[in-house]
Amino acid sequence: MTNRTPCDASPKIDVSRFIEAGDTCSGEVPIAQLERLLDRLPETVEPAEVGALAWQVKGVRDAMGRPALEIVVEGVFPLVCQRCLRPLKWPVAQRTVVLVARTPEALVALDDEVEQEVILGSKAQEVLALVEDELLLSLPFAPKHETGCEVGA
Ligand SMILES: [Zn+2]
Fold first, then answer.
1. Kind of pairing, strands 125-126 and 118-120?
2. How do the pLDDT tens digits run along the chain, 153 residues long?
3. Per-domain boundaries in the chain
4. What is the Å distance from ligand 1's center to 32 Cα?
């Protein structure tokens, strides 16, 4: 029996089974579809005109054998430079391993123990919600053009 997850049709996973199977789920999500991120877009940018981000979620184990999810997000997210207030194409290349707890009690215990992010393993976890969380954490609050604002923009 295989646990292949049809992520295109319905990106929800049973987290424990997903990790046991060592499954991988990946795709592309239009930024316009990530509601919690829309207020980070510059006002001059139409959400429909921005691109998509590539993502991948993989069931793994950490160095200590604990169940975990590896979440990768890549692409370009348009932000506003906080120095010159002009658009800035922020490169996203985020790879995070989040530990998965089976029970709320285990979640609290693990959270005290490790510095990593810990989530509660749901039986119907929306994969894109995980991707959205990671992206929210990875975007800087005060992004600035790296190469100077005059040449940037
Ligand atoms: Zn700038």
1. unpaired
2. 444 555 655 578 999 999 999 999 999 999 989 999 988 888 888 777 788 999 999 999 999 999 999 999 999 999 999 999 888 889 999 999 999 999 999 999 999 999 989 999 999 999 999 999 999 999 998 999 988 886 544
3. 12-138
4. 24
